[in-house]
Inverse folding.
């Protein structure tokens, strides 16, 4: 696939400003916490997590989890399954899940249920972008940007593993979906 330049939806400067702003809000919310555990969801959240983690001035640890999702015919709750678990035991920890996108809500609902069952001291979630119209009700604590229902790429987000390293959040124009 040719990597034609996606149209800018959220610029690098806007992302930068919002990450700084979110870090400030998170710092205030966790002012009394001894330490927080940032749990990044691979792969889409890796750049967002890297920037957010470096901006935060709280004692923090970082770990990653990876998921596999199933379109249909799944045996797993919500069609989502944990394929790589955290190495750090979350029991008694202040856990902040850092995810790329909130779309149907299935992924985040699954993660919140899975990690709540392990009795963290607290459990919150932060997503870079939220699309409209969740099919599953889910409580999200921090949202970077509310965006329209379009396929977005860049800043960690992909289209067939392309575009992850773009410094901005963009939309792939229909022509780019066509082969060749
Ligand atoms: P949900 O379970 O429907 O909320 O799915 C969200 C997941 O789908 C995200 O973690 C992304 O991995 C993926 N996803 C949904 N929309 C997009 C998009 O526009 N670009 C890239 N990935 C997306
Ligand atoms: Mg994801």
């Amino acid at each position: 696939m040719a990597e034609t330049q996606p149209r800018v939806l959220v610029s690098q400067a806007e992302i930068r400003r919002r990450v700084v702003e979110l870090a400030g809000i998170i710092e205030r919310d966790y002012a009394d916490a001894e330490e927080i555990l940032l749990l990044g969801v691979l792969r889409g959240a890796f750049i967002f997590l890297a920037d957010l983690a470096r901006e935060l001035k709280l004692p923090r640890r970082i770990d990653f989890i990876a998921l596999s999702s199933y379109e249909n015919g799944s045996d797993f709750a919500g069609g989502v399954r944990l394929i790589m678990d955290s190495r750090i035991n979350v029991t008694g920890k202040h856990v902040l899940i850092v995810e790329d996108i909130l779309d149907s809500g299935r992924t985040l609902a699954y993660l919140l249920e899975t990690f709540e069952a392990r009795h963290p001291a607290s459990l919150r979630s932060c997503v870079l972008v939220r699309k409209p119209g969740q099919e599953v009700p889910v409580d999200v604590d921090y949202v970077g940007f509310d965006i329209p229902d379009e396929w977005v790429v860049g800043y960690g987000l992909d289209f067939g593993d392309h575009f992850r390293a773009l410094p901005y959040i963009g939309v792939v124009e229909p022509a780019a979906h066509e082969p060749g």
Observations:
- The first helix runs from residue 12 to 29.
- The CA atoms of residues 131 and 149 lie 5 Å apart.
